[in-house]
Amino acid sequence: MPRSVNSVAAKNRRKKIIKQAKGYFGRRKNVHTVAKNAVEKGKLYAYRDRKKKKIAFRKLWIQRINAAAREQGMSYSEFMGAVNKKGIELNRKVLADLAMNHPKAFKAVADTAKK
């Protein structure tokens, strides 16, 4: 009995990889074996950098809160300690937004925390 090969499934599998490699440079976009490696590597970077993005934003928020807190005469750690002690439940993302876009509201939060 002759060997049966499911070429339809194989072609679809390869097509899927080539489609994911759209926009890559050189052979990475149209040679299956090269594209497969490039797509796998790209997925690894995407997975890793989704985590890194969260870390980077947290750093940015802390810098913005620190700058605004220093204008109010407090360091970042003093400010966050006072905010937590007073039970103000605003996360760093919201506090950083207040510091950048609504300085009067941030000042009110800082004054509440100082008391």
Question: Which structural category fits the helices and strands?
Answer: mainly alpha
What count of structural domains? 1
Span between termini: 88 Å
User: Quick check: average pLDDT?
Assistant: 94
The backbone outline, from C-alpha atoms, is rod-shaped
Q: Write out the CATH superfamily name.
A: Ribosomal protein L20, C-terminal domain
Q: Please report the first level of CATH classification, the CATH class.
A: Mainly Alpha
Radius of gyration: 26 Å
Summarize the structure.
The chain has 115 residues and is mostly helical. The protein has helices at 7-20, 32-71, 76-86, 92-101, 103-114.
What key attributes describe this structure?
115 residues, c-terminal domain of poly(a) binding protein, mainly alpha, 5 helices
Describe this structure in words.
This protein is an all-alpha fold. It has one domain: Orthogonal Bundle (c-terminal domain of poly(a) binding protein). Helix 1 runs parallel beside helix 2, helix 3 packs across helix 5 and helix 4 packs across helix 5. The radius of gyration is 26 Å and the shape is rod-shaped. The model has no long low-confidence stretch (mean pLDDT 94).
